[in-house]
Amino acid sequence: MKLLSTLLLVLVGLFAYAKAQSCQNADIYKHDVEDYTDLLQSLIDKASATNQHALLLKPGRFGLRGKDPIVLKPGVSLQGNTDDPTIFTTLSDPKSNESATIQVPAASMGWSIQGIVFDNVNIDIQPHKNPAVAKIENNVFLNGGRGAIVSNFGMNLLIDSNVFLRDQAHAGTEFIPKYNTTNAGVVFETQENSMITNNIFGMDLRKLGDVLPHVPAELQTSLRKVQYLLTCAELELEDQQGFLASGVQLYHTNEITIKSNIMNATFPDTIRIAQDHAISVVGISNYLANTAVMIYVANHADFMQVDNTVVYNNFLYRFLDHNVDPAEPHLAGWLYEGITFYDFWTARLNNTIRPPIWNSSVPISPFAHQVVITGNRFGAAPGIDPNVISLGNLDPTQAMIDGKNCYVSPPLVPELGSKIPLLWRQTYKADAAAPFGGKIPQVFKFRESRKLIQRVPEDLRHLPVPAYWKGFTLRNNTVPMLSPESPCFQ
Ligand SMILES: *[C@@H]1O[C@H](CO)[C@@H](O)[C@H](O)[C@H]1NC(C)=O
Ligand SMILES: *[C@@H]1O[C@H](CO)[C@@H](O)[C@H](O)[C@H]1NC(C)=O
Ligand SMILES: *[C@@H]1O[C@H](CO)[C@@H](O)[C@H](O)[C@H]1NC(C)=O
Ligand SMILES: *[C@@H]1O[C@H](CO)[C@@H](O)[C@H](O)[C@H]1NC(C)=O
Ligand SMILES: *[C@@H]1O[C@H](CO)[C@@H](O)[C@H](O)[C@H]1NC(C)=O
Ligand SMILES: *[C@@H]1O[C@H](CO)[C@@H](O)[C@H](O)[C@H]1NC(C)=O
């Protein structure tokens, strides 16, 4: 009872202060975690019954049982302590590592959960149609079951300035994870009109100090909480915290914006985990912006259409060499190129797609219309051939790709200038090789439109490049990251 707060009425609209680290009060984190499940629930119930808007939580570590969820009653928001962290820790049996859950019922409107450390505790948002925006901001999620934040049949959610960490013991185990079996940061099913911005998904904790100066102030407050956990609360966290099946996993979503997040797998490619995607989208109408990720459209789930896809203004940097190639048989591009549209033709030809998928509904050529690829820049570390744009077996007349996709480092084919070659159906030139042994795509005549920028949504045309790339050094600290604003190679 003594550690958790009394109730206070506050205005929600909280500001983040950059505070100097002090371990003065850290003793409160160093004793056995007690069970606060019933107390927290009763405080929430009381706040809801008396129309108090926010529960201001004290610093400390508060145990929550894994079985029944804590229910965030209507009208109540949760606010972690802004000086020293409020930590919710699961009390689950280590034999199962089951997460505890804060459940947000449909009747909650305009709620927020801010500034809390969730130690294998997740947030589960129940189906609803609330017009008011709900916010999950400035939290730190350690592990957290199949999703640190799970929302289905919902809308109007803002997930901003959070840090999602996951260690190897809590990595996913399913080969092809599904909604119920994934181990992701954010999982949406049939979600609409929501934003996932300025978050970190996966991090090597030894590099926290490199990244911290280059992220926005709001995200710095979340990173400082992680620092506090390590240096003051002395929580034993593994260095490698990138074992997410997906940073963001979306099923059947509409109008989701994923913008300016940092997503890093953190561990050597020789460690295999289930799926290991940054963003996995099964569905339509989502916006990925300022998100330097490898993008491919895979029709795993019998989704046949990849219509209206815009791939604009991404920076893709290749820095891994053949030491980290996957085991034979090499997929040699049909799955892994800079911008890749899954190549059903080659995959089927070589019989490497698992039968239940392509037997059921996937046609030889996936239906794709209005695919726009413009303004993307590719680079490669010295001694490595850069990537190409692989169209799989899309119908070339539906792909709109202009010469504004360019190399910023020496090009694959010098005669083409900095223009990035297009690969179609894995057809390479017979007797030619790139400077470092790579294969060179055959030239196909594709439609080129001069006004592709008009097909990029207006509000995504002039996004600033976030500074956080400065916190990264690649290939085990041997290759400095290039500026995403590097000009096309001359
Ligand atoms: C639970 O997590 C701990 C570390 O936090 C790990 O050592 C243990 O293997 C995990 N158990 C299971 C069943 O995953
Ligand atoms: C997930 O599991 C629950 C309970 O087992 C089930 O009711 C639900 O249909 C499942 N959802 C999906 C998308 O598989
Ligand atoms: C990002 O991941 C790489 C491995 O892919 C790792 O070497 C690096 O330390 C990570 N950086 C951060 C900031 O997590
Ligand atoms: C597909 O199979 C053919 C013939 O067996 C082989 O030459 C080619 O390299 C394979 N392609 C891929 C991408 O595995
Ligand atoms: C897929 O099709 C092949 C040949 O048409 C058939 O032999 C196989 O049983 C089918 N597999 C499934 C899972 O339906
Ligand atoms: C990274 O470099 C360190 C020394 O700088 C070395 O000990 C370690 O083995 C390297 N890791 C990999 C994956 O190459």
Automatic annotation (TrEMBL):
Signal peptide limits: 1-20
InterPro entries: Pectin_lyas_fold (IPR012334), Pectin_lyase_fold/virulence (IPR011050)
Keywords: Signal
SUPFAM superfamilies from the UniProt entry: Pectin lyase-like
Transmembrane stretches, start-end: none
Official protein name in the record: Right handed beta helix domain-containing protein
Species: Absidia glauca (Pin mould)
